[in-house]
Amino acid sequence: EVQLVESGGGSVQAGGSLTLSCTVSGFTFDEADMGWYRQAPGNECELISTRRDDGDTAYADSVMGRFTISRDNAKNTLYLQLNKLKSEDTAMYYCAKGNPGNWSLKGQGTQVTVSS
After folding, report:
1. For the chain, what percent of residues have pLDDT higher than 90?
2. Is residue 101 over pLDDT 90?
3. How many helices and strands, by DSSP H and E, does the chain display?
4. How far is residue 77's CA from residue 70's CA, in Å, rounded to a whole number?
């Protein structure tokens, strides 16, 4: 079955950290371009970070220097390390496969709530 399953979300105080995981199955993970995006209630989707199969990474200005994307191809898992969290980081976080704006596969999401 082709799927992406996110985990690791939760509630944390401002300044805290979380590590999100996205475990994939059903396709060749090490050949896939992957990314994370988020959506808060009433807001549009925001692309957070991407990591291509060649190792190239990119980040939104809003998370640059605080979030880190990584992948473990042996575990078929994509990660997003969230540090120095702010209340405005509160959102549902999704991992996705493919190209931003035209994702070929998306997960169900994991909720991150940051209290100030």
Report:
1. 96
2. no
3. 0, 11
4. 9
